[in-house]
Amino acid sequence: MEKIVILTGAGISAESGLGTFRDQGGLWAQYRIEDVATPEAFARDPALVQGFYNARRTQAAAARPNAAHQALARLQRNRPAEVTIVTQNVDSLHEAGGARDVLHMHGRLDKALCAACGYRWEAPLEMQVAEPCPDCRSPSARPDVVWFGEMPYHMPEIYDHLASATIFAAIGTSGQVYPAAAFVHEAAAAGARTIEMNLEPSAGVSSFDETLPGMATETVPRWVEGLLARRTT
Ligand code: OAD
Description:
Blueprint: E1 3-8, H1 11-14, H2 27-30, H3 33-36, H4 39-44, H5 46-62, H6 67-78, E2 82-87, H7 93-96, E3 103-104, E4 107-114, E5 120-122, E6 141-145, H8 155-163, E7 167-171, H9 183-189, E8 193-198, E9 210-213, H10 216-232
Parallel strand pairs: 1-2, 1-7, 2-3, 7-8, 8-9
Antiparallel strand pairs: 4-5, 4-6
The protein binds 2'-O-acetyl adenosine-5-diphosphoribose.
């Protein structure tokens, strides 16, 4: 059986109204990473960091999955292959679109994490500074997102999936953040056919066997329908 591993980035949620990071006017043009997305920033100014993620969480909660999220869920449901979705996104639009077992390597906005004991719970829309952990009561609540300088989640599992992939697709990611940017090399070394679907060529475009330029809501459903049709012919 074929095994498809899909990596998604902010570009897949752009047409749901969520801003990307590095496009013109993107989040990293409005904020400095070192001010809002590092453990040092949280230690220095927790109110600024919680405020940044509270705004992201409120936007994400109001967003709806688009045709690209829905197409990937359809691919998983129809099982022409084993399909694993790995996302760098902290929104939950894959799940809202019907996908299962999504590996959120950069965490999730809708979860809170206790920095003291590691307990996780559903984040309220507005997290407060020094909110107590419901388990150990330490005032150490933080968003359950991975900051620069921290280890992404699920890495051993993701590398296992890449090592047995027959198809690897990267969707809506600029290929500038590691380790995700190197997944294409892992998959190619395992013999997978690699494909990029992005609005503009990513930093790693030359590493892919095939590219489908365009908006995710157009390229992804077309790609999925092609895979599903191949199964029935
Ligand atoms: P970026 O903002 O770096 O890249 C988004 C990519 O999506 C760009 O290459 C765009 O060309 C493309 N794009 C935009 N709109 C699109 C659309 N409608 N259809 C298809 N492609 C589109 O976002 P990521 O690569 O996801 O990490 O960023 C990776 C990580 O950097 C994020 O997870 C975040 C960020 O800093 C952390 O915060 C740890």
